[in-house]
Amino acid sequence: MRVDVTAGGYEVTATGRDTSEALHRRPEIELAWHRAAMSGLDPGMDVRERTIADVDTRSSLTLAAGPVLDKMVDDLADTRFSILLADRTSRIVDRRVGDRTVGQALDRVLAVPGFQYLEEVSGTNSLATAFELRKPIAVTGDEHFLEALKLFACYGAPIIHPITHRIEGVIDVSGPVSDATTLLGPFLMRATRDIEQRLLEGSRIAEKQLLAEFQSHSNKVRHAVVALGENLVLANTAAADLVRGVDHVALRAIASELTTRSDYEGSLVLASGLPVAVRASSVAGSNGGVLFEITEKSAPQPERLTAGFRATPTTASAAAAPPLSRVVLVTGEPGTGKTTTALKIAGEARASFDSFDSIGTKTQWFADVRSALSHPEASVVIDNIDALEIKLVRQLSAVVSESACSVVLTSIPIAELSNPHRALASQALTRRELQPLRSYPHKLVSIVKSVVSEVAPGSAIEFAPSVFRSLAQHDWPGNLRELRAVIDFAVRGRDSGVVTELDLPQVIRPQPRAGRALTLMEAAERDAIVAALRASRGNKTIAADALGIGRTTLYSRIQRYKIVGP
Predict the structure, then answer these.
(1) Tens of pLDDT along 220-278?
(2) Which DSSP category does 5 fall into?
(3) With contact defined as beta carbons under 8 Å apart, do 427 and 434 qualify?
(4) Which of 128, 125, 184, 178 is nearest to 149 (CA)?
(5) How buried is 144 (Cβ within 10 angstroms: 0-12 exposed, 13-18 middle, 19+ buried)?
(6) What domains sit in the chain, N to C, each tagged with a CATH number?
(7) Is 95 helix (H, G, I), strand (E, B) or coil?
């Protein structure tokens, strides 16, 4: 027997015990089942295990929701319903259970604080699916994808911040399927509105706390002070003169990686080209607010654009640089500036060979390289050794080891090389790894300025702050090479004016409902997965073993980070 009713924005399906009757799923449930299947889930499996992380019991969400959850517990005292609260990543941060049997049932499906309840690990349910859809939903009995969850009737709703309009979390009420009732829809929506109202009030308090900290620092110092909150930017007179709107992108990139237990101290080149020292610290009680103190450096340090690697020291500072070995290896992703760096290390008196040129001309290419390596006073650059055939790389290894001249090799990261190529690379005792562009978004302003000077020398072109926000969110698989192409596209045909988002290529512009930018930790995890897949030539079983994770976890990460290939 089935009864379909609608209440409080919810469409609830109460399913009887006769499972032989075909289940007609609602469109949103059908799509959720499809997503679960695409994640590699099977209805008969348990909720996928993941690391249970610590939760922040003093976050703005938990503080705002606490009194509301207390009242909900009182209202549900005579029922068998439990309450789950998840944060903006769908990680459960609070659980209220009055019935011991229900609590044990939730434990069995990992609905516990610290567990990230996503569709890719738990299938269709009101917590994970409400998080995915960003709208309220009820999932009852057989509507759950996993058999293990079919004994529950669940009601979930996202918590949206009234100011930022971003999702702050999800609240869920779950109980036995036999207790399903349409009354919980309006009850849950009322609780959601109460939490959102308390978030609004908390934001005002947080802004006052950030303002107080800003005023306290500004009154004590004469250098630039900037305070950044969720929707608040404060700057003293010195900062107003020094820091432009586009610099906020770099400052927010620093703030996103800041923890409450440690401050940040580092350097930054502002949009004006001025190098500055930056000190950043979290402001307690400000809901993620960060205070920046910015001071000018005595003199700018010239830096060549080689994606995360500082140029070789000039003669004045060469004495402080560590000596180079006879063979030097420069590694990095495509487009990070490996060739530029290698040529700079080798100096003017050099011979340069690209391994891609050996394709179809192996004998002549190898003869030319061997001839160059026979001159002890020469410097030889061998670019892209990862492109060499195995037989050729073995021949080259023997010649390089016997040569007395300086050799600079470039390749993709060592972990992605095959054993013969790795043997050649191991001859280099000096190794320089160039970091991908996405690993330092706080330097985008100065990098773009440098690229503009190359592609449009002498121009007076400026970039709108929204452009830098879009650039900071892009993954940059092509690194500096891709950035140069994007900048060249945006400034083509002009020598002045302001570049806006509309001037960027379509693939760079913000897309509707685009996800948030990856944190540095997430970007590092994505890079490790990509590297493992390349090293295993796409074999996911081998890649999962190399990463120390299960194959199903690897599949879910591939889907989450939208990794394509190899």
Answers:
(1) 888 999 998 877 889 998 888 888 888 888 888 888 777 655 788 888 888 888 889 99
(2) E
(3) no
(4) 125
(5) buried
(6) 2-202 (3.30.450.40), 221-296 (3.30.450.20), 318-433 (3.40.50.300), 437-503 (1.10.8.60), 520-560 (1.10.10)
(7) strand
**pLDDT single digits (tens) 58-102:** 788 998 999 999 999 999 998 999 999 999 999 999 999 988 999
Measure the CA–CA gap between 18 and 15, rounded to whole angstroms: 8
565: buried, middle or exposed (CB in 10 Å: 19+, 13-18, 0-12)? exposed
Which residue type sits at 433? E
Using CA atoms, how far residue 187 sits from 90, 96, 184, in Å, is 21, 16, 5
Reported as a single tens digit per residue, the pLDDT across 104-139 is 999 999 999 999 999 999 999 999 999 999 999 999
Does the pLDDT value for residue 17 go beyond 60?
no
- How far lies 323's CA from each of 124, 152, 257, 318, in Å? 59, 66, 34, 9
Q: What are 419-440's pLDDT values in tens digits?
A: 889 999 999 999 999 988 888 7
Q: What are the DSSP E strand ranges found in 393-479?
A: 406-411, 430-433, 460-463
Report the relative pairing of strands 350-354 and 379-383 from DSSP bridges: parallel
What is the distance between the terminal CA atoms of the chain, rounded to a whole angstrom?
49
Q: Which residues pair with 498 in a beta bridge?
A: 462
Q: What angle do CA 391, 393, 398 make, to 5 degrees?
A: 100
Helix axes 444-455, 247-256, angle to 10 degrees: 140
Burial class (CB in 10 A: 0-12, 13-18, 19+), 152: buried
Q: Using pLDDT thresholds of 50, 70 and 90, give the confidence band for residue 12.
A: very low
Which regions of 309-378 does DSSP assign to beta strands (E)?
Answer: 327-331, 350-354
Q: What is the DSSP letter of 96?
A: E
> For the segment 163-211, what is each residue's pLDDT rounded down to a tens digit?
778 899 999 999 999 999 888 889 999 999 999 999 988 888 888 888 8
- How many other β-carbons are positioned within 10 Å of the β-carbon of residue 72? 22
Amino acid at 468: F
